[in-house]
Design goal:
- The protein contains eleven helices and 28 strands.
- The protein is of the alpha+beta class.
Length: about 525
């Protein structure tokens, strides 16, 4: 059993039930059947005890509703649903018991409804209980009788009452009432719940089983109702340590905006609002010195403090929360708080420098003091510019022309969009790189081996804020070989086969000129400076 500690009597009855059920499966003498009378009578007494215990729980609900209906009534409604479902299921089982007494003892329903197992003449009768519970001629593993209906009702009962319990409490519920397959000692295998409990068992055992199921139903009722009652207690405000709390929407306010704060007692009763006074408070005594302002706006026990701002800088205020206790005594809880009022301002922080370069993605961070990044809007004017919001205050600016552009910032307020100003940026072209070959930029010496192993022309742009690539489109190589001037052209960065053949014939002292180098820059095709290589 679950939902409370078992008494010694309950444990004894449970052990007897298990032992006698096992003995029946082994075809022990019918004299054992009389022991089931003792078990059933014990279970009936236990069920009466559960009814009394559950009655106390429902009386506690009634008292809680009388004291605080808003808090307790929703939980009482759930408890009443559990009680109704438990009674309906137990009544269904009582009707099954009555039907068995009617058919076995040949009784009228009015008599059978209150008949006792100890007065039954044929305690070993098993055909009629099997027909009622399993169904006439039905396969015990696929019952069509009352056992099938009972199983479905038990499973629905467990689900319905579990759904009434908050999610956080469901893991601790121990409802029992298992309808899973069970191991049959007689069959020495797992069999259906209906078959094991009701197929070809004597009526004494079947009636004890039904009483035991009623016992589990009332136990589950007790467990669930107790859980619901605990939730009423959890909702009760219990004052242990009480602190005055001030929770502003923001401590940093733009001039002209409203400063808003929640001022409240950390533990409060939603049905009684405290008195909150704003003024010069003596923190030692909780007494307001001079004039004060009384808050008249409350939501769920929270005092709503709203004041217009004007003067800049840190603004301090104080007050007292007067709490009336159950004995009528008023206890003051003084508090102090402050907030900062600033001029409308914004910050634009260029990630690289105060320049936007044409044709590249220029990262920039934008923020407005006291404003969430999601409420900030930025636009670009001039320079053929555009701006993309990357989130969390990060932006990408692209420009296409001109010498200057501006980034304009506004912020969304409850009154609409408010401009926060703008910042100007210079617009420039990306500098041109210099061509290098075999590691030489400009003029330089190179060995024949280095010359032959060079991969081709490589544009180099040193000490620039962006790591840019300049794909080589074409270039020329000029050289004097055996007194004859030769000029060769290549597409792409690599030397052609003809160039490599000529380079293989150069001798120390000769010069190789890399000229007419064209690259793809962010703003279009550019011709960049070449280099001169002198063979060592």
């Amino acid at each position: 059993m679950s939902g409370g500690k078992e008494t010694p009597r309950q444990k004894m009855i449970g052990m007897m039930y298990l032992v006698l059920t096992a003995l029946l499966a082994l075809n022990v003498s019918k004299e054992i059947l009389n022991a089931f009378v003792i078990i059933e009578e014990g279970l009936i007494i236990t069920n009466e005890n559960f009814d009394a215990k559950n009655g106390l729980l429902y009386s506690k609900f009634a008292k809680a509703v009388a004291e605080n209906p808003d808090r307790a009534k929703p939980w009482q409604v759930k408890a009443m649903k559990v009680q109704k479902q438990s009674q309906e299921l137990c009544t269904f089982i009582d009707e099954i018991k009555s039907e068995m007494y009617q058919k076995i003892q040949k009784l009228d329903k009015s008599v059978a409804d209150t008949f006792k197992l100890k007065n039954l003449d044929s305690k070993d009768e098993n055909n009629i209980p099997t027909e009622i519970m399993i169904g006439a001629g039905a396969d015990p593993e696929h019952a069509t009788g009352k056992a099938k209906d009972l199983k479905e009702k038990i499973e629905k009962f467990k689900k319905d009452i579990t759904d009434l319990v908050p999610q956080k409490d469901r893991a601790t519920l121990k409802l029992g009432l298992s309808t899973e397959e069970m191991y049959s000692i007689g069959d020495e295998k797992m069999v259906a719940w209906e078959s094991n409990l009701f197929a070809h068992n004597p009526v004494a055992a079947v009636l004890s089983v039904l009483a035991k199921i009623q016992n589990d139903i009332k136990n589950a009722e007790s467990d669930v109702v107790s859980t619901l009652l605990r939730n009423v207690d959890e909702a009760t405000i219990k004052f242990d340590k009480v602190l005055a709390k001030v929770v502003p929407e923001s401590n940093y306010i733009i001039s002209g905006e409203e400063y808003k704060a929640d001022i409240f007692i950390a533990a409060y009763n939603s049905s009684t609002n405290p008195e909150i006074l704003i003024g010069d408070v003596d923190t030692a005594t909780g007494v307001i010195r001079g004039a004060s302002t009384k808050l008249d706006k409350f939501e769920n026990g929270l005092g709503k403090y709203v004041v217009n701002t004007g003067a800049e800088g840190e603004q301090e205020y104080s007050g007292v929360i007067n709490v009336k206790m159950q004995d009528g005594k008023v206890i003051p809880y003084p508090f102090k708080s402050s907030y900062m009022v600033a001029k409308p301002s914004m910050a634009i922080s260029p990630t690289k420098m105060n320049v936007f370069y044409i044709g590249v993605e220029n990262p920039v961070d934008i923020s407005v003091a006291g404003a969430s990044p999601t409420s900030v809007t930025a636009t670009v004017t001039g320079g053929g510019g555009s701006i993309i919001n990357s989130g969390q205050g990060h932006y990408i600016v692209k420009v296409t022309s001109g010498n200057e552009c501006s980034v304009n910032v506004s912020v969304k307020t409850k009154d609409g969009s408010k401009s926060m100003g703008a910042m100007k940026f210079r617009v420039k072209k990306v500098p041109s790189p210099n061509a290098s070959y075999a590691g030489v930029t400009g003029d330089g010496k190179v060995s024949k081996g280095e010359l032959m192993n060079a991969g081709g022309v490589i544009p180099k742009l040193d000490d620039f804020v962006f790591d840019l690539k300049f794909p080589v489109i074409s270039w020329n190589m000029s050289i004097f070989v055996n007194g004859v001037y030769a000029d060769y052209a290549a597409s792409g960065p690599s030397a052609t086969a003809q160039m490599k053949e000529i380079l293989n014939k150069v001798k120390p002292g000769q010069k190789v000129m890399i000229e007419e180098v064209k690259v793809q820059a962010p703003d279009g095709v550019r011709k960049i400076p070449g280099c001169v290589l002198k063979i060592k």
